[in-house]
Design goal:
190 residues, 38% helix, globular
Length: 190
């Protein structure tokens, strides 16, 4: 059982979706959502929110460049940012409860139980975050994994789904209704 989130933002009258790439492991080179397993006692929504905070290493909601440079996954820092992400989830899902989708179970028995949410966040420049990951790539790292964030324009993302789904991590390309939700978000945010 797992959950993920594909955040989106409006910037200069265009809709962008936030993805990540990792540099090692089975997800290396793919455009990935933010997600993972649901812990005991968590809802899908809580798990997706927590995974976003953990996978962005508490940098995304940092208050300043200094805060980004000091980022470290501590329980207090995660809790503060989880409150922000929970509010964003609630705002998005109150207005658009259908902006979520299940992963196609395929032929697996039992089927994969995975739910992904599309949540609106504020746009921000991600270059400083990407720079921090790049600078931290060594034997003594403060981050669990080197990543790179990407804002992908809605039209480009729809093009990838239609023409190059192999660029998407498998659970992202297996999301039932994802292109329809992306198109709807784009239309509603013109």
């Amino acid at each position: 059982m797992g959950a993920g989130v594909i955040p989106f933002a409006v910037h200069n009258k265009r809709v962008y979706f936030l993805f990540q790439k990792v540099f090692k492991g089975r997800k290396s080179g793919y455009l990935c959502d933010f997600g993972g397993g649901v812990n005991k006692g968590e809802s899908y929504q809580q798990a997706a929110a927590r995974e976003f905070i953990e996978e962005t290493e508490t940098m995304f909601f940092a208050k300043s460049i200094e805060d980004i440079k000091a980022a470290k996954k501590t329980p207090a820092r995660i809790a503060r940012q989880l409150a922000i992400m929970t509010r964003l989830f609630n705002n998005s899902l109150q207005q658009h409860p259908d902006w979520c989708c299940w992963r196609d179970p395929g032929s697996k028995i039992p089927p994969k139980d995975w739910k992904t949410f599309f949540i609106r966040i504020d746009y921000q420049d991600i270059n400083i975050i990407n720079q921090e990951w790049k600078l931290d790539d060594g034997p003594q790292t403060r981050f669990s994994k080197r990543r790179e964030l990407f804002w992908i324009d809605a039209d480009r993302l729809l093009f990838i789904y239609e023409n190059h789904p192999e660029k998407l991590w498998k659970r992202v390309r297996q999301l039932v209704k994802a292109p329809l939700i992306i198109q709807t978000i784009k239309q509603e945010n013109k």
